[in-house]
Every structure is written in structure tokens, then in C-alpha cells.
């Protein structure tokens, strides 16, 4: 079994693969243009997951590195799912030195609650205090 290597080296990211997954196979970013994926990556702390030099997973964190972080665009390619790689990826994100001591670390998920619960994520303690501007299917328009 190959060992998963996780790095925050943006130069190693496979941009075409990331864009293809997000724009065609994700449930949250269908139709996202490549230029937006590039800008999101440029302005985020990104984690690439690699098997034998081939990228098989991705996650990015938007953060001020002091009080807040938002975990987004987490995925492992379909052929590599069920092997514990998503757990390793989330563990790498949460243990990153620059993401320690934050007051709030948020994410949104439609189907991976069990994964994130094991790392301490819960529904908002005070949901009445949270608000959002949400534009589903924005990239399809």
C-alpha cells in the first residue's frame, strides 16, 4: 500500500485535476471557472494529498491565521476513497502549526458529518447568531 504524502506546497498542486473535480464532480462548485479556482487557491492555505507523486486529494483553508478558519473544497478522488485518506487529510489540516489556537474553525458539509464529528466539529452552538449570504448554483448562471 502506498503512503499518502500531504503538503501545503502550492507548486505541487495539479490545478487541472482540482478544477475538473470541483467544476464537474463536486456537489458544491459545479461549473466554477478555472480563474476562480486559481484565485481561491492563491488566497488560501492549501493541502494536496499525493500517492506515488499523483495528486488524489485536496483541501483548502481560508483563514486570518489568528482567530478564524474555514475549511473548504475537501475531496479525495473516487478510486481512492474508503482507504482512510480523507481522515489523514483532515488530520493534516487540523494539526497544521498555523491553524492552532483559533477561536472558530468552520465548514459546511452535506454528506460527511461523520468524518468531521470525529475531529470535534459540531452543529453551531448558537445557530441564531450565524448568518450567511448563500448563492447556490452561482457558477451555473
UniProtKB/TrEMBL annotation:
<dbReference type="InterPro" id="IPR053144">
    <property type="entry name" value="Acetyltransferase_Butenolide"/>
</dbReference>
<dbReference type="InterPro" id="IPR016181">
    <property type="entry name" value="Acyl_CoA_acyltransferase"/>
</dbReference>
<dbReference type="Pfam" id="PF00583">
    <property type="entry name" value="Acetyltransf_1"/>
</dbReference>
<dbReference type="InterPro" id="IPR000182">
    <property type="entry name" value="GNAT_dom"/>
</dbReference>
<protein>
    <submittedName>
        <fullName>N-acetylglutamate synthase, GNAT family</fullName>
    </submittedName>
</protein>
<feature type="domain" description="N-acetyltransferase">
    <location>
        <begin position="1"/>
        <end position="141"/>
    </location>
</feature>
<dbReference type="GO" id="GO:0016747">
    <property type="term" value="F:acyltransferase activity, transferring groups other than amino-acyl groups"/>
</dbReference>
